[in-house]
Amino acid sequence: MTFNFPPQFIWGSATAGHQVEGNNMNNDFWAEEHAEGSPYKDRSGDAIDHYRLYEKDIALMASLGLKAYRFSIEWSKIEPEQGEYSNSAIEHYRGVLEACHKYGITPVVAMHHFSSPKWLMRLGGWASPEIPELFSQYCEVVFRELGHLIPYTLTMNEVNLPVMLREVFSSIGFIPPVGIERDAWVAPKWRESAAQLCGTTADKYFTFHMISDEKSIKILKEAHKKAREVIKGIAPDTKVGFSMALSDIQSISGGEELAEKKWQSYFGQFEDMIAEDDFFGLQNYTRETYGPEGQVAPTEGTELTQMGYVYCPEALGNVIRKVKQAVSIPIMITEHGVATANDERRVEFIRRSLEGVQSCLNEGIDIIGYLHWSTFDNFEWNSGYSMQFGLIEVDRTTQERKVKESARYLGRIAQMNALVTK
């Protein structure tokens, strides 16, 4: 049986600058990797050398049948020092965008994906009241040069993740979606060292992942609003949104109230950011189950991914339905994937998840695209290179790309614009 998707449905995959480009030496994550006592399992280093190999990579995506590529622009490359903009970096990203259009790939551009310039930390980071102006100025520079090449943009990736990080670390052993371990998050010494490497002190060091209090969330919301206004003023045809990491929040008897509080914390408190956007970026990897005492550990025998998440393809459809209750604009699935060395399980994950997407479409929910995380096995933050999310394997000794069956499977779906269940 074949399920057909709407015409113009966006099929593709996603990466983030710091995870694939290599040698992003001028941002806060580079500092954290190199800090004394750093909990990062690896340093990003050359990563998968995508900064140099992007055109070959984009051509490979197109040859597989993929139709879209979501990537991020690295702020620290565009603006290595406050108010100083790099023409060579702008021209690099022009090349990336032009390569996308050359190979028939729709670019979806994230203006911020976790990493920030070191100089921003010297101003107080994402707790600084200057953030909305600074971030929108960076967006303005990029869009004046490149806006005509960008049909879709996310101002920021996973704006709610810092709240999730703060809350889930009270649950022993739970690893949040970005892959930062609980003990590492609360250990102060390495953050002091990272602050020094950014040229500042720990009291000013406030990264994107620390935006979880009322004051900093308010600053983040204003930054999104101001950036959106700037982008639409320059490139009115560009569709603007942001993305959120959303697990499928479930409950057992007695856990209903706590589950509802978690959803409000993870999603509800950010709803006011969405109203004037063009689309909503939904990102899902797993489900979370709550009982009267808190999050319930998976039962024995439950399949877990490399990240320790419950393997739950059906979570995607459940989250789409829940988001739709509050969102009237189109939904784009801007990340969705599974960390596993068994690519057959990834193929199964894609198939079952897309059956859920198709069901949501049949219910009349406006879903405009599906972007799989990730295009490549890449640098997964605190977890280093140990997690295998990619549709394409990379031999980092030679930087050779090795296509997995999951990439071919998703490419066939994209080419047919249909999900073949057999």
Automatic annotation (TrEMBL):
Keywords recorded for this protein, A-Z: Glycosidase, Hydrolase
Homology family: Belongs to the glycosyl hydrolase 1 family.
Annotated Pfam families: Glyco_hydro_1
Hydrolase keyword on record: yes
InterPro entries: GH, Glyco_hydro_1
GO biological process, one term: carbohydrate catabolic process
Organism name: Metabacillus litoralis
PANTHER family given in the database record: GLYCOSYL HYDROLASE (PTHR10353), LP05116P (PTHR10353:SF36)
One cellular component (GO) term of this entry: cytosol
SUPFAM superfamilies found in the cross-reference section: (Trans)glycosidases
UniProt key word Transmembrane helix: no
GO molecular function: beta-glucosidase activity
Descriptive protein name: Glycoside hydrolase family 1
